[in-house]
Design goal:
327 residues; alpha/beta; 8-stranded mixed sheet; 3-stranded antiparallel sheet; 11 helices; 13 strands
Length: 327
């Protein structure tokens, strides 16, 4: 099947947010998005640069306390590259605040900012998902952030999909373990790969069982053993497939603090964590870093833990960084 696929960013429906946050505003052309369109169809990466330091290196209230501890130990993502595959060219913008003031940004601009705030010394690259060119990798650790889904009529297998070079390259990297792939689980409150309105996210299905892919669900907030947290009502879950469960993590998405809800904003946290872990274990492969994050997740910070809901559990950056070496 090669046609009738729809690509959607995985923020929750804007109708669920206050009206002041729901209105998309056209603030004029985005100089970063402009690099991704208009004669640049052969350009795989639309922008390669570190984020401007308007996002200061300060631990914000929506972050896990583990982030500050990692920074204090000297691990901020240096040497890793996070490529954000997302919307950088549409006219759709919405409001939020990651602790540096209210902004109106495109979906990709939000996910890019979030990943850069978690791992401030990582290199952040932007790839507009409206282009079809392959995602390219660079020397060092590569992390790909996918806060979107590819939806089509249910009932096909992933190998029947006529993937563009963009998604084909991502699936290949996850299969070969050449990049950590952090994939937002989705916001339909079903299991990963579930059918909603006769549609399925085939990008989810294509990444099931891939060596360095992680599905990321959203929690109401960051959990502790004394104040456990639960799955956000909208978040997709791991479901009954043990293969999905073994590659499913959850993190807190504090929409009450940022105005930003959805598994779209869970995936960049894991992307940032992967970069931070890579900045300590500099010789580790993407698959080793993926497994380290999965195998050190916590279940004691979650209400009524079940693998079918939470997968491996809540990602724990402190546990992932604890050993002297990983294999």
């Amino acid at each position: 099947m090669s046609g009738n696929r729809w690509k959607f960013a995985l923020a929750t429906a804007l109708a669920l947010l206050p009206a002041s946050m729901a209105a998309a505003q056209d603030l004029g052309p985005d100089p970063l998005g402009a690099l991704c369109v208009g004669g640049q169809s052969n350009a795989s990466i639309c922008l390669s640069a570190t984020l401007p330091t308007a996002t200061t290196q300060a631990v914000q209230g929506w972050m896990s306390s583990d982030v500050g501890a990692a920074w204090a130990a000297g691990y901020k993502g240096k040497g890793a590259t996070i490529t954000i595959v997302d919307d950088f060219s549409s006219t759709s913008r919405f409001s939020g605040n990651f602790g540096v003031g209210v902004q109106n940004q495109r979906h990709g601009e939000w996910t890019r900012q979030e990943a850069g705030m978690i791992a401030p010394l990582a290199t952040i690259r932007s790839k507009d998902f409206s282009t079809s060119s392959a995602v390219t990798l660079v020397p060092g650790l590569n992390v790909l952030n996918l806060s979107y889904g590819m939806y089509a009529k249910a009932g096909y297998s992933p190998n029947q999909i006529g993937w563009s070079a963009e998604e084909a390259s991502i699936i290949s990297y996850a299969t070969k373990g050449t990049a950590v792939v952090s994939k937002a689980a989705g916001n339909d409150a079903v299991a990963v790969g579930g059918v909603v309105g006769g549609q399925q996210d085939y990008l989810d299905l294509a990444l099931v069982g891939k060596a360095s892919a992680i599905f990321v669900g959203a929690l109401d907030g960051n959990g502790t053993t004394s104040n456990k947290t639960k799955m956000a009502w909208y978040s997709n879950t791991a479901g009954s497939n043990p293969v999905v469960q073994s590659h499913f993590l959850v993190v807190g998405v504090a929409g009450n603090k940022t105005g930003l809800y959805g598994t779209s904003f869970a995936a960049p946290i894991i992307s940032g964590y992967a970069a931070i872990v890579g900045s300590k274990f500099t010789s580790a492969t993407p698959t080793q870093i993926t497994n380290q994050l999965l195998n050190t997740a916590r279940t004691d910070t979650l209400v009524n833990y079940s693998a079918s809901v939470y997968g491996k559990g809540e990602a724990s950056l402190s546990r992932a960084l604890a050993p002297l070496a990983i294999r």
